[in-house]
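Notebook, p. 212. Picked up where the previous page left off. The plan for this session was modest: take the two constructs that came back from the sequencing core last week, fold each one, and keep the raw output in the notebook itself so nobody has to go hunting through shared drives later. Recording the first one now, exactly as returned: residue sequence, then the structure token string.
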Amino acid sequence: MSKSPNSMLYVGTGVGVAAVLTLAANFADHFVQPIPDNPSIWVAPENSLFVAAANAQAEAAGGAKFGLGRAALPEEIAAWDLDVSPDGTGLPEGSGDVWTGDELFAEHCAVCHGDFAEGRDNWPKLAGGQGTLDRKDPLKTVGSYWPYLSTAWDYVHRSMPFGNAQSLSADETYAIVAYILYSNDLVDDDFVLSNENFLDVEMPNAEGFIVDDRETAEKHFWTDEPCMENCKESVEITMRAAVLDVTPEDETAEVEASAETEEQQEAAAVASGSQKGEIEEASVEATPAAATAAPDPELVAEGEKVFRKCKACHQVGEDAKNRTGPVLNNVVGAPAGHIDDFRYSKALEEAAEGGLVWTPEELHAFLADPRGYMKGTKMSFAGLKKEEDLDAVVAYLQSFSQ
């Protein structure tokens, strides 16, 4: 009687397994070290901080040490122990001024966060947003949201620049944080941040946070028996997620929403017509005298300091050239978009066609809030918040007008 195919298959499989096991045993004999009699004397790599931490944890728990690794060296611990507390604990000695920070920010940070900390693409904004936290779309920045300056210093020093973390010295970190404060109009341009005056800086949202007391205030949530069914007699819609637009609307609500949209469109049309009328009126009232009036020399000197915020994009003077923004020689009193070899935004071109003239008043309005004044402008600067800065920089620009 002949052997069945299944029998042959079993025999072949058994022989194959035996061969593999024999080969594995021979390999282990030659290349795998035997288990020592006392496993506790195994030695980990000398730089293993993990096993050192394991030893310390075991000893603290009352157990025996594993006999692994070594104690971490002070310099190794210091490399990880970088945190800075709101009360200043952990701050190293050092200092940095706003304008050194301006240069460092342009070199290390602007590629992601913009020249004025206004953000770029999807990278976060670090400046602006004051007064927006009560809106449906708040802008959370260092100036509007962060309650402690130590958070900014710690993050910059520990994690920035992106891709080259912890490459900044303490002095460089102080300077960059000083510039971020300046970009949020929280300090003046001559400010020097140091470990000595660090706690003197008041953050606008310092009182905007509360202590997390959920462990006690909401203790009943963790201890009470949870309700699993029929927890309420009835379920009603009490609020509508208008921002997300996910709550179903009834017909009445849709009609009201449609009417509200029409009203908003009418208001926008009126506002647009009003702005166009103001531009046309400004063009009629503009006179060469506005450009030729001699500005106050002291105000011009102050304006030169304020103009430092603009120098990243604009130049003035005899050898001025177009950069990200156009040359600003003779801008006061000139028609908008008057530089022939510069490519302006479509929004500014339309304003120029409408007769916009850069009178001192129009420059004031534009420089206070560029994007609010002209929707679609390429000007990324957040704006000058102080009236005296606006007066000064316009006077400075007038000094370069013929």
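Okay, moving on. Second construct, recorded in the same format:
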Amino acid sequence: MGIKIGDVSITPIIEIDYPVPASFLLPDATPENLAPDLDWLEPHFVTPGGERLKMIIQAFLVESRGLRIVVDTCVGNDKKRALRAWNELDGPFLQEIRDAGFPREKVDLVVCTHLHIDHVGWNTMKVDGEWVPTFPNARYVMVRPEFEYWRDEGEANWGDVFGDSVAPVFEAGLVDLVDCDHQINPELQFFPTPGHTPGHCSIAVSSGNEEGVIAGDVMHHPSQCTHPEWCSIADIDRDVAIATRRSFCERFSDTGIPIVGAHWPLPNPVRITAHGNAWRTAV
């Protein structure tokens, strides 16, 4: 199902879809803690009783001003990963994006909100035992502080993510390192939303009189609107991540601006609404 924001079209492509226990990613989102919010979390965002969080891993195919743009590239096939469910996948991602009108040779831009394992995997593909750019005619747009952090730190707990999914496209000369407020094109612009990672950015969409947001991992799950203090196990700077979630919700609360999150399980965007001293999402 596609999303339209003015003349911009956004098509989600889901690579992995399965409910997860809170302990997998969001330890505070236990059934007991979720209970007061089940009236709006069910049925879209949690399984009955809040036993598990409904989450997905997806890429967004964006058509804007004649450009084919892929935002975030999931886990990828054939990657050796410490997490069994993500290890050496063999999924139909490339056929699915081709069927959606995005053959890999025709993609113009690959835009990374950040460089975590589940957002860069299809940057590359294995050919004759080597990692090569999946999108050979695209420019790969990455925020410089994010790139430099992972270049220096690596992501060894998950696997050689930088080595197999970022370094090969950089070495091929396809990467554009940009600032956190980079204008991607006249309809798409980065804005900084750090904390989850040092250079994490979201993408503001503006076309005609309509606006929208591709949020990346500002919030992994809508329950974090009500509880911005709930941190993902993958948040690198918890204090900054909490502050970013609060400012994000304040900025977009009751504006009617549609927002899509990288792991939110709906095929359509949500709106953030004020609720008491915090926020909720409206479908």
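Notes on construct two before I forget. The chain is about 20% helix and 30% strand.
Flagging for discussion at group meeting.
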